[in-house]
Amino acid sequence: MRPNNALDRTAYRRRYAVRFGSPARPLNANVGHQMETENPIYRRWNPPVETRLPDIHGWLEDIHSAHELASRLSQEVSAENPDPVLLDALLTAALVRYSRCFTTGIRARLSIEELSTASPTDIDLHERIRGIRDWHIAHPVNEQEVHALYVILDGSPEATTGAIGFSSFSSVESPLQPFEVSAMLELCEKWIRWLNAELIQEQTPLIPLANRFSRAELLSLSQDEPQPNSNIRAKRRQVQR
Description:
Elements: H1 53-77, H2 84-99, H3 120-137, E1 145-153, E2 163-172, H4 178-203, H5 207-210, H6 215-219
Antiparallel strand pairs: 1-2
């Protein structure tokens, strides 16, 4: 149930709520941790200590999106007549959303080294996903994409002419094989479990700080939410953590 709250005006937004002492959420849920109240009230709080909670929420958003896209991709790959346009769109989106967690910007950079349950195979897949995003999707610089120019001649037995035209050839290898898509789903699930555990751990030092406020003091805090900038060239603020 979506809260009837002015802070949740757009359907595409996902709010991660961490209740004190709440268990990690199920993998297939749509929010970070389910609150017991059906009428939550949100107030913006800037704690006096450093916290990674906003970063973790952002990572979860991207990993969840990557998982959902990869799941749809797996279904489309297995379809009787898969749509090549949809395959390309889902694959591109899944790789980009996954890779966003591992670059710096307005939030901290996540590292595969933090995922203690990652196997050597997981790490290899992680690096492959990052490589595809960096060297194939974002920048066409690797040999998964090839191009060639051909000259056209008349193939008739009586033909005596030389070149009558030109043709170009392009071929792109599918960046991920079906078995790698399944492995990506499993890797995303490992990230989700770890990030949910990190949410619980990260809230521990915040609980006593938040408990210093009375209900009235909490209600007096701002209801505003940060607004994204529609100017795509607006310089983002780099974070150092």
